[in-house]
Design brief:
Shape: elongated
EC number: 2.7.11.1
Radius of gyration: 33 Å
InterPro entries: Kinase-like_dom_sf, Prot_kinase_dom, Protein_kinase_ATP_BS, RLK_Ser/Thr-Kinase, Ser/Thr_kinase_AS
GO molecular function, one term: protein serine/threonine kinase activity
Structural class: alpha+beta
GO cellular component, one term: membrane
Distance between the termini: 128 Å
CATH topology of the largest domain: Transferase(Phosphotransferase), domain 1
Number of helices: 15
Enzyme class: transferase
């Protein structure tokens, strides 16, 4: 009998063949290879997706300055006040009109006036008024109906300070002022925010010294983004002094907005601050003379008079203290740090449950009730004036119990007729009796516990500038108030005292002569 020929192997037979040292069947090897291929494809897809997103993000961070990033649009609308255009006919400002859709009717547009601190004007009056200058209109107010969607118009006015130090640099800005710096610009200016460039630190940020491309020295304030605090302080400072110009206010030159970064760029003031001069930080430069101290305090008073009385809405600084009064090479004051500032309408006050400020400088009614108005700044200024007169800290727990609080101690000394003993002993040439008592009277009026009896800052400027005797009525009106008894009892002698020192002529401080 013949054997039948064997049948040829099938595909199943081939796939079932055992291969390799692992003794895996062919079909098992094929499945493993397919699985590995799919895993590789998946990871490649994820990698390409992440890379493309990073590229898009990097491109959006470096958009040309001719385009407006979304974040700038948001900041541009910071705290605008929506009111009829007719209400602002007498003020300077930036008029914005916004239209969400191209087809919206004219009546559906949002018309708002952005107030970032604008000087009041007197038509036809070009005179200066003590602490500030008035601004004259060059052009009338333009109504919202004249502008198109997303446009803005700005009324013009004479500048009240010198031109911007950013000469030669294009002013690309979407806040209506200043320079829009990139993060790269400020990294180059500060040596990548080097620790060696740090000139100040605080709860809200770090201040670096820098030099921008045109050689201008600047102070770069990098805000710390703690729970959105950077955004809040950025808006406050931009709103308070973005448009404000005064020789005794530190100038805000520009800003940087990239991602979560909020950075403010100021003019650089290189001669320390009043606290450093009074309490040792600048002791190697010498001691401030009486004349230098009064000059610094007078400049500070002029800056506050401008903020309170010359712009609309007025600005309440809320943190006037010696460390926030910068000093330039000519010993002129530059008020700085508007991170706590508050804008208030004419005659308005603000009540808050969160009192902000520095212990020792805060007005009692603000600390106790949260009531905030310009009188709060006036109290703080009075404390700084006493600090400059005495060389003492507002609160010093290293002193005896009855001398811890500067204001209380000063009132006690004046009531005890020992006002001549309060002068800072580091002052080489003592002030004349008239000059000392004028400064003390001014300070005591500023720190009056009754806020309604405190003078306006314009009055403070005139009191510090004038050499005329203080009217008797002013002295009598303070009778029986804390710290005024000795002043009232010497009505005639206080201004014509024979101990006026003929040697106390205006002189620069030892510090200025040692430069």
């Amino acid at each position: 009998m013949m054997e039948s020929p064997s049948s040829s192997p099938t595909l199943q037979d081939h796939l079932s063949v055992t291969t390799g040292p692992l003794h895996l069947k062919v079909w098992e090897v094929v499945c493993i290879a397919l699985g590995a291929f799919m895993v590789v494809v998946f990871f490649l897809t994820v990698w390409f997706t992440i890379r493309s997103r990073k590229r898009i993000r990097r491109a959006s961070a470096n958009i040309p300055v001719t385009q407006i990033p979304a974040i700038s649009k948001e900041i541009k609308e910071v705290r605008v006040e929506q009111v009829p255009a007719s209400d602002f006919g007498a003020h300077d400002g930036v008029l914005l009109t916004f239209q969400d859709k191209a087809g919206d009717r004219e009546s559906d547009k949002d018309k708002v006036m952005v107030h970032l601190g604008v000087s009041k004007s007197r038509r036809g009056d070009e005179s200066n008024s003590g602490s500030f200058r008035y601004m004259d209109k060059d052009a009338g107010f333009q109504s919202a109906e004249e502008g198109g969607s997303g446009t803005f118009r700005q009324t013009s006015a004479h500048a009240i300070t010198a031109p911007s130090p950013l000469v030669g640099m294009p002013e690309f800005s979407y806040l209506g002022w200043g320079h829009w710096f990139t993060l790269r610009d400020l990294e180059l200016a500060t040596n990548r925010f080097s620790k060696d460039n740090i000139i100040g630190e605080g709860g809200y940020g770090i201040v670096y010294r820098g030099e921008i491309v045109n050689g201008t020295p600047v102070a770069v304030k990098k805000l710390l983004n703690n729970l959105g605090q950077a955004e809040k302080e950025f808006r406050v400072e931009v709103e308070a002094i973005g448009h404000v110009r005064h020789k005794n206010l530190v100038r805000l030159l520009g800003y940087c907005v990239e991602g979560t970064q909020r950075i403010l760029v100021y003019e650089y003031v290189n001669n320390g601050n009043l606290e450093q001069w009074l309490h040792g930080g600048m002791s190697h430069r010498g001691s401030l003379t009486w004349e230098a101290r009064i000059k610094i305090l007078l400049g500070t008073a002029k800056a506050l008079a401008y903020l309170h009385e010359a712009i609309e809405p007025k600005v309440v600084h809320r943190d006037i203290k010696s460390s926030n009064i910068l000093i330039d090479d000519d010993f002129d004051a530059k008020v700085s740090d508007f991170g706590l500032a508050k804008l208030l309408g004419a005659g308005k006050s603000h009540v808050t449950t969160r009192v902000m400020g520095t212990f020792g400088y805060v007005a009692p009614e603000y600390a106790n009730t949260g009531l905030l108005n310009e009188k709060s700044d006036i109290y703080s200024f009075g404390v700084v004036l006493l600090e400059a007169i005495t060389g003492r800290d507002p609160v010093d727990y290293g002193r005896p119990a009855n001398e811890v609080n500067l204001v209380d101690w000063l009132k006690m000394m004046v009531a005890s007729r020992r006002s001549d003993e309060v002068v800072d002993p580091t002052i080489e040439t003592r002030p004349s009796t008239r000059s000392l008592k004028r400064a003390l009277l001014t300070a005591l009026r500023c720190v009056d516990p009754d806020s309604e009896k405190r003078p306006k800052m314009g009055q403070v400027v005139r009191m510090l500038e004038s050499d005329d005797p203080i009217p008797r009525g002013d002295r009598r009106s303070r009778h029986n108030r804390g710290g005024s008894t000795e002043m009232d009892s010497q009505r005639d002698n206080s201004d014509t005292d024979k101990s006026d020192n003929p040697d106390s002529k205006p002189s620069r401080s030892r510090a200025s002569s040692s430069k």
